[in-house]
From TrEMBL:
Protein name (record): Uncharacterized protein
Domain of life of the organism encoding this protein: Bacteria
């Protein structure tokens, strides 16, 4: 038989990877202690959304999570501003890549800085504009 997982243990298990991955805390043991403290002091179901909220606000400090939780406690309810898409993006597992590298392209001859012929109309227009600008600056 299995023993039921407490809400606090579940929250700690969900939050610690986020805290470590996004560098809120340098190691898992410190992150686990902090997450457990939050889950004991505030409603446990608010902790993960608070971490995601601070990611959304680009506030990558543990103190920011505590500030968000404190604000939500004063308001009596959580008030996240992020979308479900943002939450899914930041909650991906470490093994998933958020982007894939672009394939290497064989280099071709460098692009010329000057047109093939000096008589091209675009080149002539640009040259005239440059001369007009130079005259105005003088």
């Amino acid at each position: 038989m299995f023993s039921p997982v407490s809400p606090i243990s579940r929250v700690v298990a969900e939050v610690v990877p986020l805290l470590v991955r996004y560098r809120y805390e340098p190691d898992e043991s410190q992150a686990a202690m902090i997450a457990q403290g939050w889950a004991e002091q505030y409603p446990a179901e608010w902790v993960r959304p608070a971490v995601v909220e601070t990611l959304y606000q680009a506030r990558y400090k543990s103190i920011s999570v505590a500030q968000v939780l404190n604000l939500w406690q004063r308001q009596g309810r959580p008030h996240p501003h992020y979308s479900g898409d943002f939450e899914r993006l930041v909650s991906r597992s470490n093994s998933e890549r958020l982007w894939s590298p672009l394939p290497r392209v064989a280099s071709r001859s460098p692009l010329p800085l000057l047109p093939a012929t000096v008589t091209e109309p675009q080149y002539q227009k640009l040259r005239t504009l440059a001369q007009v600008q130079t005259v105005r600056e003088s």
